[in-house]
From TrEMBL, chains A, B:
Gene3D superfamilies: 3.40.50.2300, lambda repressor-like DNA-binding domains. Pfam families: LacI, Peripla_BP_3. This is LacI family transcriptional regulator. SMART domains: HTH_LACI. The gene is lacI_12. It comes from Paractinoplanes durhamensis.
Amino acid sequence: MPTINDVARAAGVSPSTVSYVLSGRRPISAQTRARVQAAIAELGFHPHAGARALASSKTNVLALVVPLRVDVNVPVIMQFATAVVTAARTHNHDVLLLTKDEGTSGLERVAHSTMVDALIVMDVEKDDVRIPALRRLKQPTVLIGLPGDPAGIVCVDLDFAAAAAETLRHLAWHGHRKIALVGPSPSVYRRGTSYAERFLAGFTEASAELGLETMTHPCEPGQAGVRECLADIDAELPGVTALVVHNEEALRPLLDQLRSAGRRIPEDISVVAVCPRDVALGMPIPLTSVDIPSHDVGGLAVETVMKLLDGRHTESVRLLPPTLVERESCASPAS
Amino acid sequence: MPTINDVARAAGVSPSTVSYVLSGRRPISAQTRARVQAAIAELGFHPHAGARALASSKTNVLALVVPLRVDVNVPVIMQFATAVVTAARTHNHDVLLLTKDEGTSGLERVAHSTMVDALIVMDVEKDDVRIPALRRLKQPTVLIGLPGDPAGIVCVDLDFAAAAAETLRHLAWHGHRKIALVGPSPSVYRRGTSYAERFLAGFTEASAELGLETMTHPCEPGQAGVRECLADIDAELPGVTALVVHNEEALRPLLDQLRSAGRRIPEDISVVAVCPRDVALGMPIPLTSVDIPSHDVGGLAVETVMKLLDGRHTESVRLLPPTLVERESCASPAS
DNA sequence: GGGGGTCGTCGAAGCGCTTCGACGAACGAT
DNA sequence: ATCGTTCGTCGAAGCGCTTCGACGACCCCC
């Protein structure tokens, strides 16, 4: 592996000049620059990342903390991750992958040992134990999600409360008055997962504002969970004409269940999903849905981190507005 | 951030002694070690990763290259990734996430700049353009998959040829003679994806050995693709009594399709899937399947990398034997 | 035509760690 | 007692890069 000294010698300049060619931090004459660049190309020189980090205190690496639980939506996580990696590369950064199960100590390890310049943390809970630790780090951090107390930490996410309101507005506009929310599994609520609570709160509030008759029900995974959930809904809110489904895994069995009960969509019951676009499109009937824009959120997280890294100011909480797209799962109730 | 010098001062020893306490590369008296460790704990010292990498030429970081295509099985990839990260951590390594779309240059970038000690590359194709580049790197590499010419590179994977044979043996044992393979989408074959070809070859060979009447058919994603695939199969191999499905995405629509055509599983038609265990279990009927042990393969990849890193020898191709587990989707044909 | 700037380049220091050689002390064997 | 070892520790060199201050050369303006 050639070093910067080899390049300098080959180009007949000093190592510092090579460095300045690379960084552009000082003016270098066109001829010199050309010679240096030729030498770099010829020798196949790549600066040593460790040496660079040591000298400049910059690693050009971001940490990305992903959950690896199974009850959480794998494709969504994957979309976030690829969005983050792709966006990071456009800013000349690489991504170090951490799993949530290392908890606080994992964050501290990579931060204290200066392996990364900044962190992006997914799957945030309401009273996330990692938050106090994150506040103490010298590296900037961006959360994907919204903890109970976001003070001192920058957060980005979809505006789930607005998303909930959006689904209800749409259904109300179609004329629905009795609407049930099929939520995530109870374990998600139990963990205090941020997006679940925000969606629930938005749903309840919008329901009151619109004067609707609604109920909410978590939904265990699997056929059995869905069956039970639907039964409870029918018992508690008889004559329900629309379902808002904020549970990607339940979606499929739920549609199956409705079909085998002879309830047609949208003739007998309307459904609005909250899920990634491709999931909504991959169902037997294309579902009217509020998109979960993993890609945008991931990209925004990276942009925000970059802003923080070069000291620019940024708002501390940034919630993306939801967009509902109409497909084929909503109609006016038969009445 | 305290440095090794701060620790040395606090413990009343020289920096090199602290280093030897950390690395254990020279004997240190119990008292000294205790004092040093106390100082480390008190100051919250973490060695600077860059400095360490520079001095020792070891980064304790692995690169993991994942595909980010959409036609490829997201949950499987995610399982690989988490298995790799988890296993890497047990060896005190972290994982840098690269996407396949950076191609050869991404590999060269992280390798030449000494960001990683070794690489693990997923989603290998038969004539993968990255292979020659990988051979040239000074860092050891482990492929998950099997290229056409694996010379000079270590590979680990499930033995897909054996897996195919296993499915046929099982179905033959049940008395099936007419069996069709529902394969991955044509684009997967077109790309020369290693596992698809190996499964196909194993299927064809075992079919001949067992004297079965079989056919194979790729399957486009989506309901339409499945419908077409089934129609072709019925046309080409009338009276087919069993299906081997090597296409995770097609699985669900395929079952739907069979059901709505009034073909019961396993009474009218048997199905063996090749997919991760949880996918097989998540279907309306628990499917008899050959497990794709992402977790084991990921773990094995890391173990292999570690072996290479400390100079131990390792076989150049390691294929895990498949295991078929019986569930409820196979029975003897009505005859 | 001399003073003040800017431009382009160099040299040296230093980032925080590992590692090698050296060296005194302690110890067992003769 | 003496010599050779092993044990435990230290000092210094160096890993490859960035960055700061310095310094000619050159240009512009009064």
